[in-house]
């Protein structure tokens, strides 16, 4: 083996040894990603409308963040029962095109926040809650319909 080829081989092996350290996600403070539950159900509004929710729960201490979409009055409510800061997204779709993206942020233990929309019937609604510490994960539901 020539010197340049040995050097390339050694550098390649060193890179392989360091790669897992560079690509590994940082663990959450408590070592656990949060648990996501989500779903949707027929709305009292009828005509194919569906209410939806997402709840993101810390498995260690039960802290929770989440949001609900209520189709009957086109309302999105966010809540934060944790010490973590969370971002909340509500997206309304007509076909495959995003018509409205709504974003809100709540710091830990802030009061609930509700926002009302006036969107046409039949738009799909996506709810997403993301914690500021990425290793804790996020929570998404695509089941809402106006």
Number of strands: 9
Percent strand equals over 45%
**Rg (C-alpha, Å):** 21 Å
Mean pLDDT: 85
Q: Which shape, going by the Cα principal axes? A: globular
Largest sheet: 5 strands, antiparallel
String of helices and strands: HEEEEEEEEE
Helix residue percentage: 10-25%
Q: Give the N-terminus to C-terminus distance in angstroms.
A: 68 Å
What structural class results from the helix and strand content? mainly beta
Q: What strand order characterises the main sheet?
A: 1-2-3-4-7
* DSSP summary: helix tally: 1
Task: Characterise this structure.
With 146 residues, the protein is mainly beta. Helix content is 14%, strand content 47%. The protein contains one helix and nine strands. The chain has a five-stranded antiparallel beta sheet, with no helix packed on it. A hairpin with a 6-residue loop joins strand 8 and strand 9. The N and C termini lie far apart (68 Å).
Secondary structure: elements and pairs:
Blueprint: H1 3-23, E1 35-42, E2 50-57, E3 64-70, E4 75-81, E5 86-94, E6 97-106, E7 113-116, E8 124-131, E9 138-145
Antiparallel strand pairs: 1-2, 2-3, 3-4, 4-7, 5-6, 5-8, 8-9
Q: What tags apply to this protein structure?
A:
4-stranded antiparallel sheet; mainly beta; about 150 residues; about 45% strand; 5-stranded antiparallel sheet; 1 helix; globular; single chain; 9 strands
Question: How would you summarize this macromolecular structure in one to three sentences?
Answer:
This protein has 146 residues and is mainly beta. It is built from one helix and nine strands.
């Amino acid at each position: 083996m020539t010197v340049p080829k040995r050097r390339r081989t050694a550098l390649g092996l060193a890179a392989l040894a360091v790669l897992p350290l560079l690509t590994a996600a940082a663990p959450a403070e408590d070592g656990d990603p949060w648990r996501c539950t989500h779903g949707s159900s027929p709305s009292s509004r009828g005509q194919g409308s569906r209410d939806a929710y997402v709840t993101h729960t810390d498995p260690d201490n039960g802290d929770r963040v989440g949001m609900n979409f209520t189709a009957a009055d086109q309302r999105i409510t966010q809540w934060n029962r944790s010490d973590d800061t969370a971002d909340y997204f509500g997206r309304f779709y007509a076909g495959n095109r995003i018509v409205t993206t709504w974003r809100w942020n709540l710091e830990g233990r802030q009061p609930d926040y509700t926002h009302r929309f006036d969107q046409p019937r039949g738009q799909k609604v996506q709810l997403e809650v993301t914690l500021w510490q990425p290793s804790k994960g996020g929570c998404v539901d695509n089941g809402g319909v106006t």
